[in-house]
Design goal:
The structure holds two protein chains of two kinds.
Chain A (H helix, E strand, L loop, with lengths): L7 E6 L7 E6 L2 E6 L3 E6 L5 E5 L6 H18 L3 E4 L1 E5 L2 E6 L6 H8 L5 E5 L2 E7 L2 E5 L5 E3 L1 H6 L10 E3 L9 E11 L7 E5 L1 H9 L10 H17 L1 E7 L8 H18 L2
Parallel strand pairs in A: 8-14, 14-16
Antiparallel strand pairs in A: 1-2, 2-3, 3-4, 4-5, 6-10, 7-8, 7-9, 10-11, 11-14, 12-13, 15-16
Helix pairs in contact in A: 2-6, 4-5
Chain B lengths: L9 E3 L3 E6 L2 E6 L5 E4 L1 H11 L4 H12 L3 H17 L3 E3 L2
Antiparallel strand pairs in B: 1-5, 2-3, 3-4
The chains are: A alpha+beta, B alpha+beta.
């Protein structure tokens, strides 16, 4: 990993305004730079990678997040898919929650995991495995990370931290078959949480916008990405959950999701 | 693409990888990672053109299937074909 060819930047995020993360190519290496924070360099197919964190400035929590994100990016180079999603397992069935930052992904997973029937698979990065039995989510994270207002609503002391860890009652020990994907959206006009089925290209669009991507010009990696995402669309049910933002009414969303999961679990057991 | 003839035939380029999702088709540019989503009519145009039909044959079939006049079908087919060629996903057969 000593080659230092000039970097050609290919992609940056967010798409508007100053970049926080950018991805580029330098010879046979692909580079991700969290600007001013850390740099990841990896061989094109992920055979070797190196994450360098700028000295001094980041907390252990940020370092952990950087390692998780770097692992998701390297998985992409190896043909794997990681979704920017929280996810939980229920009786062997997995459900993933997609959404923009602050859409409530961690909150909903934490609410469900307050029930011992649910186990946490991921808080932020859901690793997908395509196996003989279908599409699974593998466990990747041990804690929920909650915003201070959500932590307070759940009876935790948020202190001064921007995100507060909360241990679930149970963490998943193995993969669970992905049966449902829910895109989260706030809608203050919605009197109750509403689940709308989503199909086809709309479901694909939700997934592709939530995928950790590192290779933008490596054809076999991109081909595997489209085929892998298509397999998820074929095998899982997709919904959009619209619900009011009001934290005082936050218990209604997990009830709606739990009912859906119970239905899916029953379907899975049916002969 | 500046002009298209009704006899023109097209094929997907090496950097195009497509999948159908119900009535729509998503085409991925393997050279830059960008996804292009084609609606129902765009999906039919893509699939018929990449199966080897000429532009004129596609227009006839679209007009019949969607009960639109051939002028409208031709305008749509030319626009979509032009966009796909410009994106490097479709190329004219020689």
């Amino acid at each position: 990993m000593t080659d230092r060819a000039p970097i050609r930047w290919l992609h940056h995020w967010p798409p508007d305004g100053p970049a926080a993360i950018r991805i580029g190519r330098a010879g046979d290496q692909i580079i991700a730079e969290w600007i001013g924070v850390a740099t990841l360099r990896a061989e094109v197919h992920g055979s070797a990678s190196e994450l360098v964190v700028e000295s001094g400035s980041v907390s252990p929590r940020v370092k952990e997040k950087l390692r998780e994100q770097a692992a998701a990016l390297v998985r992409h180079l190896r043909g794997g898919i990681t979704l920017h999603a929280s996810s939980v397992a229920f009786e062997g069935v997995a459900i993933a929650f997609l959404g923009d930052s602050y859409a409530g992904k961690s909150t909903l997973a934490a609410q469900l995991c307050a029930d011992p029937r649910f186990a946490l698979l991921s808080d932020d990065a859901a690793a997908i495995r395509h196996g003989d039995a279908g599409v699974e989510i593998l466990p990747t994270e041990r804690d929920h990370w909650l915003r201070p207002d959500v932590a307070r609503a759940m009876g935790l002391d948020p202190g001064d931290e921007p995100k507060i860890p909360k241990e679930p009652l149970r963490s998943a020990r193995g993969g669970a078959r992905l049966r449902a994907v829910i895109a989260l959206a706030f809608d203050d006009a919605a009197p109750v949480p509403t689940l709308r089925p989503v199909r086809g290209a709309e479901a694909f669009s939700l997934l592709s916008l939530s995928t950790f991507r590192f290779a933008f010009d490596v054809p076999d990696v991109l081909r595997q990405e489209l085929d892998g995402l298509a397999q998820i669309v074929e095998q899982a049910r997709f919904y959009e959950l619209r619900r009011p933002r009001d934290l005082a009414r936050m218990d209604a969303s997990p009830r709606a999701v739990a009912l859906l999961l119970e239905d899916l679990s029953r379907e899975g057991r049916a002969p | 693409m500046t002009t298209t003839d009704l006899d023109d035939r097209f094929r997907p380029t090496a950097q195009a990888h497509a999948r159908r999702f119900d009535r729509e088709v998503v085409v991925l540019d393997l050279g830059g990672g960008k996804y292009y989503s084609l609606d129902e009519v765009g999906a039919v145009i893509w699939e018929k053109l990449t199966s080897g039909l000429s532009l004129g044959e596609v227009v006839e079939q679209i007009a019949a299937a969607y009960d639109v006049d051939e002028e409208t079908a031709l305008r749509d087919a030319r626009r979509i074909t032009g966009e796909l060629v410009a994106a490097g996903l479709l190329e004219r057969q020689t």
